[in-house]
Amino acid sequence: MQLTIDLTGRDVLVLGSATAARQALRRYEAAGAVVYRLSSPEGLESDGPLPENPFLVAAVDDGQPGWEPLLQRCRDAGIPVATEPAAGPAGHVTLIGGGPGTPDLLTAGALAALRDADVVFYDRLAPYQELPALTSAELIDVGKRPGHHKVAQGDIEQLMVDAALAGKNVARLKGGDPYVFGRGGEEVAACVAANVPVKVISGVTSAISVPAAAGIPVTHREVSHLFTVVSGHAPLTEKEHTHLAGLGGTIVVLMGIGTLPQLVAGLSRAGMDPAMPMAVVERGYRPGQRTTIADLGTIVNAASGCSNPAVLVIGEVVRVAEANRNQAESTAELDRLAASLLEA
Description:
Structural class: alpha/beta
């Protein structure tokens, strides 16, 4: 059960050691409460005067024995008692895969790491609009846009390391998965070089999830038993075009609008059938999501108005999606016809 209570101006007593309780304190302060803290059950050590009759007592699971008698007295007095997880060990970095940009595809691990963070460095393709509801941490935008890097990659890594060395829990929220064209390996290496503990929480990559949002399976029995994921930031070589055209299966290109003409020309020179179906899925899971379907020979003109963020899908699986969509539309039309006949 999850309840929402207005804590504005209410006295909240947080029980727990300074390290373990720091994020719970920040969450209640962000909710507008007047927050007091009791550090230890022994001797009732506090950071100042305590409220006589708090509206709520929040017990942080800090591992100290001896809290239960106080908690029981609060319950007996009719004071609600909430439990809070302890903050993690200070001074580490967590790289978080934020998925394709919708909070629905954040993993449980990602949510826990955001909750435990003191500072979050986030990218523009991550679900950053939801962060104020997911964490009370300091939020810093380090997102890159085509042709404009607000913060250089090396500077991002230095910011992460410096914050962790200062004792903060650092969350690095990235779109998709940190290890799929996300430069996560570089950021892990920077932390390791600085002796900063670091871990990675995988995310749902847009290479699979964005085609799915458009109804396109990247594999399908008797149609495609493999898929290849390609970065579209830079044109491919002739050898890469040849390998892709000869490999078969499904080709998924991330952020490939800018290099689409070179990709189409290269695959055509490598012998790919000009009738090969293609789809461009723009802004997957975001307002304005749009899918443009054509074939290798016509996609450049068809996609002339498309822009990144976009995922390109090349392969017969695009026809599977079209067939399913047509079937669904036919079924819906039959249902509407049957309903009208019954009404008549």
